[in-house]
Amino acid sequence: MLTKVTTADKTETFLNESVGETYHSQTGAVEEALKKYAIPCKIAEKALSGHIRLLDVCSGLGYNSAMAIDIALQSNPKCVIEVIGLEYDPEIITKIQEVNPPIPFFNHYKKLTPETTELNEGNVTVRFIIGDARETIKELSENHFDAVFFDPFSPKTAPDMWGTEFFKEIYRVMKESGIMATYSCARIARDNMSKAGLFYDDGPIVGRRGPGTIATKWV
Ligand SMILES: C[S@@+](CC[C@H](N)C(=O)[O-])C[C@H]1O[C@@H](n2cnc3c(N)ncnc32)[C@H](O)[C@@H]1O
Fold this sequence. Notes:
By secondary structure, the protein is α/β, with parallel strands linked by helices. Helices cover 27% and strands 30% of the residues. A hairpin with a 5-residue loop joins strand 1 and strand 2. The site of S-adenosylmethionine (SAM) has 21 residues, from helix 3, strand 5 and helix 6. The site of S-adenosylmethionine has 21 residues, from helix 3, strand 5 and helix 6.
């Protein structure tokens, strides 16, 4: 069962009662999208190149990628932006209709449903692939993405998502200059990133929690 909750920045998310976790940080759902994902992945800077490809792993409601699209377009309105979202739960996609975060591009995400998984808006395309991300990521091309937002449930709840095999797939699909960001600083997650060949560092501290993690193919 999914119950709507309001986070500390007054933006909404859902609590998944069977998992026992919310879809975003309770310290601020929209704040997290900006400060834990768009800023550390240097979306504004990368948009100046004129083309961004973004992989939103465990895309859920899509806050993280919708925020990144706004940041990229503010930086360069002509930027061509391609987003792939990986999400296995059609129910959370239906919940996009029930929230109104202050993310202008999110209004376009309202076109997404479990049946309509693609949208084209000007120079932006978004495609959600519905299925287990551990399998669907294998469909994606290597050396493709400038940024990867990695937002599964926690390592404690969903350890398989944080394993070496999955991080090897992220390594494969990321460009040499790509940046991955995640909210967690768990030891096991960082160790598995290293085993997959990624180099990690602290991401920003947002709210009262510990730092997130950013990871790249090069130091
Ligand atoms: C912490 S929430 C992410 C919230 C999301 N980034 C957003 O902005 O709404 C974790 C998401 O991972 C999805 N998920 C969990 N396991 C998955 C898997 N194996 N493959 C794809 N999605 C998965 C859940 O359905 C949930 O939407």
